[in-house]
Design a protein that fits this description.
single chain; alpha/beta; Conserved hypothetical protein from pyrococcus furiosus pfu- 392566-001, ParB domain; 5-stranded mixed β-sheet; 14 helices; Chromosome_partition/occlusion; ParB/Sulfiredoxin_sf; ParB_N; ParB family chromosome partitioning protein
């Protein structure tokens, strides 16, 4: 967009300004804006573009919604504005870019901006170039938005889960999700509290769905007999899987204990350990070996 700035700032009637991309504001931050303007005035005018229509002119807001609403809250009828020449599409993109570039923005706003630009036909490369965001970030967010992964998006923006991990979870089936979490742990992407939070999110997503508002509907919705049966079967299968893994771990431990037991009875091997001053072993392993030998009697 190459808008041509007006030669001077104009006083524009607030009621004639249309906000193309409205957003909710943090109440505390908004109060600070209002108080600041009330004390020292408007340091930077808003930016609008003029639309000539019957009964006009009217204006589309390019940037400065917070300042515009602050003036309105102060009871003003007009606001100083820099008028530029640009079409509606360019104004919308400029508004989205400004919101993406703000240092303090709500996470959901940024996601909505990227989604809106995608809906209007802009490519991932184009969005990244216009907003200054990385290609990988824009692609990942756009992909999660396309799949309706609201829970994962919220976790990405709250830095609970890295975007790359969220994408793996979104693309995985129920059994592969656990593998994705394990890979993230092995790579050091999820550890400690973040890993626990990720596991909780995955379980909530499985039970209540991808969308955040699904939580409310699921609380009031009556489950049919088939749904109850399916839920029971899924839960039973998860428990059977846990039992299989536990038995597998037990079998491996038995093999290890047996290997230690046989090695401890090999005079040559024990002689090597003695020469290397490696005769001691962890107390629990030694106790387990002793118990095993006693049982074999």
């Amino acid at each position: 967009m190459n808008p041509r700035p007006a030669q001077r700032v104009e006083w524009v009637p607030i009621e004639r300004i249309n906000v193309l991309n409205p957003r909710l504001r943090n109440k505390r931050v908004f109060r600070e804006i209002v108080e600041n303007i009330a004390k020292i005035g408007l340091k930077r005018p808003i930016t609008v573009t003029r639309r000539v229509e019957a009964g006009g002119p009217f204006y589309d807001l390019v940037c400065g919604q917070g300042r515009l609403e602050a003036y309105q809250a102060l009871g003003q009828q007009e606001v100083p504005a820099l008028v530029v020449s640009a079409d509606t599409e360019d104004c919308l993109i400029a508004s989205l870019v400004e919101n993406c570039a703000r240092r303090q923005h709500r996470a959901i706003d940024l996601l909505q901006d990227i989604g809106l630009m995608r809906e209007r036909g802009h490519s991932v490369t184009d969005i990244a170039r216009k907003t200054g965001l990385s290609y990988d970030y824009v692609y990942g967010v756009a992909r999660l938005l396309e799949q309706g992964e609201q829970r994962l998006l919220r976790s990405v923006e709250s830095r609970t889960i890295p975007l790359s991990v969220a994408l793996e979870i979104a693309e995985a089936d129920d059994h592969s999700v656990q593998r994705a979490l394990q890979d993230a742990y092995d790579k050091g992407l999820l550890r400690g509290k973040r890993l626990l939070a990720a596991k909780k999110l995955v379980e909530t997503r499985r039970r209540r769905g991808k969308e955040l508002d699904a939580q409310k509907s699921s609380a009031t919705k009556r489950l049919s007999t088939a749904e109850l049966l399916r839920t029971y079967e899924e839960d039973a299968e998860r428990k059977r899987d846990m039992i299989r893994r536990a038995n597998g771990s037990k079998d491996r431990l038995v093999l290890i204990v047996e290997a230690f037991r046989r090695l401890s009875r090999d005079d040559t091997f024990m002689g090597i350990l003695e020469d290397e001053a490696l005769m001691s072993m962890p107390e629990r392993i030694a106790t387990r070996l002793t118990q095993s030998q006693e049982r074999r009697g």
